[in-house]
Amino acid sequence: MADLQALREEAESAIASAGSAAELEELRVRYLGRKAELTQTLRGIGELAPEERGPVGKAANAVRVALEAQLTQRTQELEASELDSRLAADRIDVTLPGDPPSPAGHLHIVSQTRREMEDIFIGLGFNVVEGPEVEFDHYNFTTLNIPPNHPARALQDTFYLSPDVVLRTHTSPMQTRSMEVKAPPIYIVVPGRVYRRDSDASHTPMFHQLEGLAVDESITLADLRGVLLEFARAMFGPEREVRLRSGYFPFTEPSVEVDISCFNCGGSGWIGSQRDSLCKGSGWIEILGSGMVDPNVYGFVSEMGYDPEKVSGFAFGMGIDRIAMLKYGIPDLRLMFENDLRFLEQF
Ligand code: PHE
Q1: Does residue 139 sit within a domain?
Q2: pLDDT tens readout for residues 113-168
Q3: Given CB 3.0 to 4.6 Å as the disulfide criterion, which of 38, 95, 127, 224 pairs with 314?
Q4: Most ligand 1 atoms within 8 A of CB, residue of 171, 213, 249 to mutate
Q5: Cβ of 135: how many Cβ atoms within 10 Å?
């Protein structure tokens, strides 16, 4: 009877500390299998003295029943905890958003700047139109009063696709193209790519311009100045001033170069005791070319009602990339088109 009690205690603690279903199966064989001590005891009951058979048999059976029950319970517990840990390890939160292949990007700095410029001119009553980048020399030069021997027509400045087709060197061909299809008044801005055979820190063979054209009754240089002042203030801050200097373009008369007061030094030319390097100490930054539309240009669209005795207008052209470089302090135009994410992600 004492042996049975010792056996029971040994088996119970072994079962309680078993860590896996396989271990439990081994214990079942060891304590309850055919060759187990308990099984042997039950089998050998008949050999005991008659008065011992009852109590020993009863006690041995009770141990067997207890051990079987404990094994069953422990097996269930282990299976449950193995399942729990597998469920925890394999858990997938299906409510999380999926991973995109790469993070969403944003508009290129040139596109951002172009849109900002368009918005300003839309607010001033202009419409946005676009034109072809592959252009006839007729629109790129001839209707802009640029004579055949003009240096802008030379091979070293212009990409020719054939003797009379070029990659447009500016957005100005859209002046005549637009007036050909729309009678006055006309108020348009034309953003787009232009091409010139040029390459250094401030020139790339492709860059962006925004053309402006306003033709109506009694438009004057003062209207040009007012529009450009509004633009300068919207783009570079409400304290900006503009300055018109006389210039030359074949398709405007008079022609003016337009400067804005420097937003880096506030127009003084000095930052502390240092000359401002952005405006080179002048307090002014050139931002565009412009002027009053030359009567010879109207001559190409006279059948649409552009009579220089009745209408007048101004045109301007500015570099979108140049505006962005100024606004964000970018030192080299080529950075814009190298597609280096370390640069692009900054804007
Ligand atoms: N097309 C000129 C250029 O590219 C700029 C300009 C546009 C000048 C309109 C006057 C009027 O330099």
Answers
A1: yes
A2: 999 999 999 999 999 999 999 999 999 999 999 988 888 888 889 999 999 999 99
A3: 224
A4: 249
A5: 24
2: three-class secondary structure by DSSP:
helix
C-alpha to C-alpha distances, 63 to 27, 73, 134, nearest whole angstrom: 14, 15, 99
> Per residue in 264-318, pLDDT tens?
999 999 999 999 998 999 999 999 999 999 999 999 999 999 999 999 999 999 9
What distance in Å separates the CA atoms of residue 237 and residue 251, rounded to the nearest whole number? 31
Do 83 and 140 have their domain in common? no
> In this structure, is residue 100 part of a structural domain?
no
Residues 255 and 169 occupy one common structural domain: yes
Share of the chain above pLDDT 70, in %: 100
The β-bridge partners of 289 are 257, 317
172 alpha carbon to ligand 1 midpoint, in Å?
6
pLDDT of residue 117: 98
Residue 316 Cβ inside 6 Å of ligand 1? The answer reads yes
Per the listing, tokens 């007048």 go with: 312
Tokens of 30: 């060891």
Q: What does R_g of the chain's alpha carbons equal in angstroms?
A: 45
Strand segments, DSSP code E, in 267-337 are 270-271, 274-275, 284-293, 312-319
The residue behind tokens 């051990």 is 67
Long-range Cβ pairs for the range 137-140 (8 Å, 24+): 137/164, 137/165, 137/166, 138/164, 139/168, 139/173, 139/174, 139/176, 139/177, 140/166, 140/168, 140/169, 140/170, 140/172, 140/173
Task: Tell me which residue of 123, 246, 245 sits closest to 189, measured CA to CA.
Answer: 123
Residue nearest to atom 5 of ligand 1 (CA): 317
| Ligand 1 geometric centre to CA of 27 (Å) | 96
Q: How wide is the angle at C-alpha 198 spanned by C-alphas 192 and 201, nearest 5°?
A: 90
Q: Is 76 exposed, middle or buried (0-12, 13-18, 19+ CB in 10 A)?
A: exposed
Domain residues for the domain of 43 are 2-89
Domain count for the chain: 2
Backbone angles phi, psi at 125, to 5 degrees: 100, 10
